[in-house]
Amino acid sequence: NDFVNNLLTSIHNEDTYRAVLAERALLRKLEGGCQVPIGAFAQVKSNGLFLDAMVGNLDGSLTFRKKLKGSKSKPEQLGEMLANDLLKAGAKKVLDEIYNSVRVNQNIVA
To answer: Which residues form the domain of 83?
Structure first.
């Protein structure tokens, strides 16, 4: 529908779009969902795309935080790279524990 497309085009912001792509790529790579303490915040600036992200355990006693700058033209690559950095820094163990706990709890309820 041309009318709807014109409306959407009028409110589209390319910088916001690229920031959201980076954040979502990170969340997708980490398999983030509502029950997992993962945060991501991306900003487009004149000199690139900046992504700040964290992963924590359920009680907040252990967190991993990383930041990365990348190209505005490759937001999804930036998100995946930062997710990999977090995993290598130790977030993988925390996430595995959370996902295993959720699976166990789902089996108990089912």
So the answer is: 2-109
CATH of the domain at 33: 3.30.160.40
Spatial distance between the Cα atoms of 110 and 103, rounded to a whole number of angstroms: 10
User: Each residue of 21-37: b (16+ CB within 10 Å) or e?
Assistant: bbbbbbbebbebeeebb
Do the beta carbons of residue 65 and residue 53 sit within 8 Å?
yes
Query: What domain count does the chain have?
Result: 1
**Each residue's pLDDT tens digit, 45-75:** 999 999 999 999 999 999 999 999 999 999 9
For 57-71, b/e burial (b = at least 16 CB within 10 A) is beeeeeebebebebe
Q: Which two tokens stand for residue 62?
A: 């252990």
